[in-house]
Design goal:
Length: 164
């Protein structure tokens, strides 16, 4: 007979507040930040991480294209009526080291479908030591927060109507 057995614990059996506290404790080790302008001191480091990973195979745009995407007015639609908001997100540890980078775009064209918002996830790179940590989950959900904020901004400017 074994001297012990592993217990499988189920999060649904915990009190909701316990789950919130666990998540808050685990996420304190990291910070997720959106780079809004190429003049941000983190931009060259973030772009280099993406370029070193995806550039050799031609899977990422040149730096000047990314800079232009970041400077484009995301509240001005393209000629076909599409609103596009590029994003560049970094995840850092407590010491400020960039451990992950994600980029992509949020696309909305109300004339195509007034209830459709597309989040295009272009690239995600996580340093090996950050893979499988809570930061990798945060980097996966960050684009949803950006999209929600963008939708609200478009609505406040009268560009789109949000469903009730």
């Amino acid at each position: 007979m074994p001297a012990h057995r592993r217990l499988r614990l189920c999060l649904k059996d915990l009190y909701q507040q316990d789950i919130v506290e666990m998540i808050e404790r685990e996420t304190r080790a990291f910070e997720v930040v959106e780079i809004l302008d190429p003049s941000d001191p983190d931009f060259p480091v973030a772009y280099k991480m993406l370029w070193d990973t995806f550039g050799p195979d031609g899977e990422i745009e040149q730096q000047d294209d990314i800079e232009r995407f970041m400077r484009d007015d995301c509240y001005e639609p393209t000629p076909d009526g599409t609103y596009i908001r590029f994003f560049l997100v970094v995840g850092r540890d407590r010491e400020g080291r960039i451990l992950g980078v994600r980029d992509g775009s949020v696309l909305i064209n109300p004339s195509y479908d007034r209830h459709l918002c597309v989040i295009y996830l272009a690239h995600l790179y996580m340093r090996p030591e950050a893979r499988g940590t809570v930061l990798s989950y945060e980097m996966r959900i960050a684009p949803v927060e950006i999209a929600m904020d963008y939708l609200l901004g478009l609505h406040k400017r009268g560009c789109i109507n949000l469903p009730q």
